[in-house]
Automatic annotation (TrEMBL):
<keyword id="KW-0963">Cytoplasm</keyword>
<keyword id="KW-0677">Repeat</keyword>
<dbReference type="InterPro" id="IPR040251">
    <property type="entry name" value="SEC31-like"/>
</dbReference>
<keyword id="KW-0968">Cytoplasmic vesicle</keyword>
<comment type="function">
    <text>Component of the coat protein complex II (COPII) which promotes the formation of transport vesicles from the endoplasmic reticulum (ER). The coat has two main functions, the physical deformation of the endoplasmic reticulum membrane into vesicles and the selection of cargo molecules.</text>
</comment>
<dbReference type="GO" id="GO:0005198">
    <property type="term" value="F:structural molecule activity"/>
</dbReference>
<keyword id="KW-0813">Transport</keyword>
<dbReference type="InterPro" id="IPR015943">
    <property type="entry name" value="WD40/YVTN_repeat-like_dom_sf"/>
</dbReference>
<dbReference type="GO" id="GO:0030127">
    <property type="term" value="C:COPII vesicle coat"/>
</dbReference>
<dbReference type="GO" id="GO:0007029">
    <property type="term" value="P:endoplasmic reticulum organization"/>
</dbReference>
<keyword id="KW-0472">Membrane</keyword>
<dbReference type="GO" id="GO:0070971">
    <property type="term" value="C:endoplasmic reticulum exit site"/>
</dbReference>
<dbReference type="GO" id="GO:0005789">
    <property type="term" value="C:endoplasmic reticulum membrane"/>
</dbReference>
<dbReference type="GO" id="GO:0090110">
    <property type="term" value="P:COPII-coated vesicle cargo loading"/>
</dbReference>
<keyword id="KW-0853">WD repeat</keyword>
<protein>
    <submittedName>
        <fullName>SEC31A isoform 33</fullName>
    </submittedName>
</protein>
Amino acid sequence: MKLKEVDRTAMQAWSPAQNHPIYLATGTSAQQLDATFSTNASLEIFELDLSDPSLDMKSCATFSSSHS
C-alpha cells in the first residue's frame, strides 16, 4: 500500500522519528543529469501529512545551486 510519494531521483533523509511534524529532505548533486534534465544541485524539504488523502507530499522549502 502506497501512503505518499515524491517523484524525485535524489538522496533522501527523514527527520528523527520523535519529532513532529515529520519531514523528508531530498538532495541532488550538481553536474548529474536527472529526470528533468537539470544539472543543478537542489535540496528540498517535504512535510509528511498522513491526514491528507493525496499521495503527494507538501514541499516546504527548496534551495537550488549550480555548485555541488
